[in-house]
Amino acid sequence: MTGWTAFQPESALVSDVQPAADLSGYLDERSAEFDQIEPARRESLEAIARYIRLCRDEKREARLVFICTHNSRRSQLAQVWSAVAARRHGLDYVRTFSGGTEATAFNPRAVAALERAGLTVTAALSSSDNPVYLVGEGDSPLLACFSKQYASAPNPTGQFCAIFACTSADEACPTVTGSDLRLPLPYEDPKTSDDTDSESATYDQRSAQICQEMLYLMSRAAKEE
User: Fold this and answer.
1) What is the pLDDT of residues 198-218, one digit of tens each?
2) Cβ atoms of 62 and 95 closer than 8 Å
3) How many Å apart are CA 47 and CA 33, to the nearest integer?
4) How far apart are the C-alpha atoms of 41 and 181, rounded to whole Å?
5) Cα 161 from Cα 52, distance rounded (Å)
6) Could you read off the pLDDT of 160-183 as tens digits, one per residue?
7) For 121-127, which contacts have Cβ atoms below 8 Å and span 24 or more sequence positions?
8) CA atoms of 49 and 122, how far apart (whole Å)
9) Who contacts 10 (Cβ-Cβ below 8 Å, separation ≥6)?
């Protein structure tokens, strides 16, 4: 079982953003940037890696649930990039999820940033206020991404690691029922750049940072320790 979940859309519409030519090259570039990760953030990533290895040793799925207030940007990016990173490092027992303290929609600006990085994205039920986006690597199985509360299906209700991608959600949820481990890993919100000239660059920067850290996390989780 991997972090990628097969999903069959009722209908699919390819978005207007064309994916980058070389996702592998993008991932190589992010992997070469591990020295940019701040020590305090490394400590949090190492704690998650230890949790993943513990699940491996106990022969059970390692379930990671990324949480932010609206489940629209940062937590969605973290779910996707952690799944990509787990796949890259052969961690087929890692499952990744995301949720919010409330449900809104996966913001199309964040979706476009994933496409510019080289992932394939199609949209199902796109007329909905909360569309389902199908994210994959070329012809690989797809991850179904949409906004939801963190305790809502298909997210796990027990035996998971709760990772807070924003400070406000972290403060609002001092405890997460059913979680084995709870820790903050906040990212700056790219929403501050919405409708400005720096919008795309800001979303690309945040997506790249999250990708970089998820690759570091999974590289550490893959170590035999």
Assistant:
1) 999 999 999 999 999 999 999
2) yes
3) 20
4) 16
5) 9
6) 999 999 998 888 888 899 999 999
7) 121/15, 121/17, 121/19, 122/9, 122/12, 122/13, 122/14, 122/15, 123/12, 123/13, 123/15, 124/7, 124/9, 124/10, 124/11, 124/12, 124/13, 125/9, 125/10, 125/11, 126/13
8) 31
9) 124, 125
From CA 126, how far away is CA 45, in angstroms rounded? 34
Task: Give the pair of three-digit tokens for residue 140.
Answer: 């690989």
Please tell me the total number of residues recorded for the chain in this structure. Answer: 225
What 3-state DSSP class applies to 164?
strand
The pTM assigned to this predicted structure is: 0.90
147: left (phi over 0), alpha (psi -120 to 50) or beta: beta
Which one-letter amino acid corresponds to residue 56? R
Give the DSSP H or E segment for 37.
none
Q: Which of 97-111, 115-129, 144-158 has the lowest mean pLDDT?
A: 115-129
